[in-house]
Amino acid sequence: MFKKAIVRRPGKSVINGITTAGLGRVDYDKLCEQHNAYLAALKRLGLELIILNADENHPDSVFMEDVALLTPECAIITRPGAASRREEINGMRMVLEPHFKSIEQIKPEGTVEAGDVMMAGSHFYIGLSERTNSAGVNQLIAILEKYGFTGSQVILDDMLHLKTGVSFIENNTVVLAGSLKTHKDFSDYHKIFVDDDEMYAANCVWVNGTILLADGFPKIKEAIQNAGFPVIGLDMSEFQKLDGGLSCLSLRF
Predict the structure, then answer these.
(1) In angstroms, rounded to a whole number, what is the distance separating the alpha carbons of residues 97 and 7?
(2) pTM as predicted
């Protein structure tokens, strides 16, 4: 069960964030409304929020997930693969120190964005992507093993991050989209498949027994509910324009 979440307010510069979505210009006011609704959902599910101020110097900094990986035994500060995001890790040690006795960090020339990291019990799947390289994967696995976890690499060729196409929602269940539907690493899980026209909704989040899911994707919503999970739908239209999903917006622990 999660008790807390670290989030960052979106700055006005967020409209200039990295994107390949091609879905039009971000409406900043609407994005802030959507972010507030996200925070309200986390609070409704029992999480205490640690809210960081907006960072106007880094447009993508609202996507907190990528700058750290939080485990039950340690926190790991990452090293984003996008050069424009590298300085987002500045100050993260100070944020994490009150909550974690052990803090590790990915070092050059490794790169890791935690959107490429999915925890399933004590095992961590790590996507090898444009943002997370082999040196980063190897460093991360070594750190995880130090604390009694295991890790494995998942090669990606058509997704920004691993969690673009797969989400672990507990109860030995994964939500899968695209090429990951048939990936051998997930063959032993109960699988919920996302149709290609709803692929954005593959990035969903388990929080204390409830699934946070992007609104507007009725087929995957019904499939998750039929699997026994309650769902809270959230409008994510403005974050979708920035290639960002639900898991990206917080560090939950």
Answers:
(1) 16
(2) 0.97
Contact call for residues 9 and 62 (beta carbons, < 8 A): yes
**Which residue of the set 35, 58, 74, 161 is catalytic?**
161
Read off the pLDDT of residues 101-150 as tens digits, 9 standing for 90 and up.
Answer: 999 999 999 999 999 999 999 999 999 999 999 999 999 999 999 999 99
| Residue partners of 190: CB distance under 8 A and separation at least 6 | 171, 172, 173, 174, 227
Whether 123 is catalytic is: no
CA-wise closest residue to 10 among 74, 55, 41, 43:
55
Distance CA 94, CA 10 (A): 20
Q: What are phi and psi of 89, to 5 degrees?
A: -75, -15
Task: Enumerate residues 6+ apart whose C-beta is below 8 A from 33.
Answer: none
**Could you tell me which CATH class the domain 4-252 is placed in?**
alpha beta
Helix (H, G, I), strand (E, B) or coil at 230: coil
User: Has 183 been annotated as catalytic?
Assistant: no
Residue type, 165: G
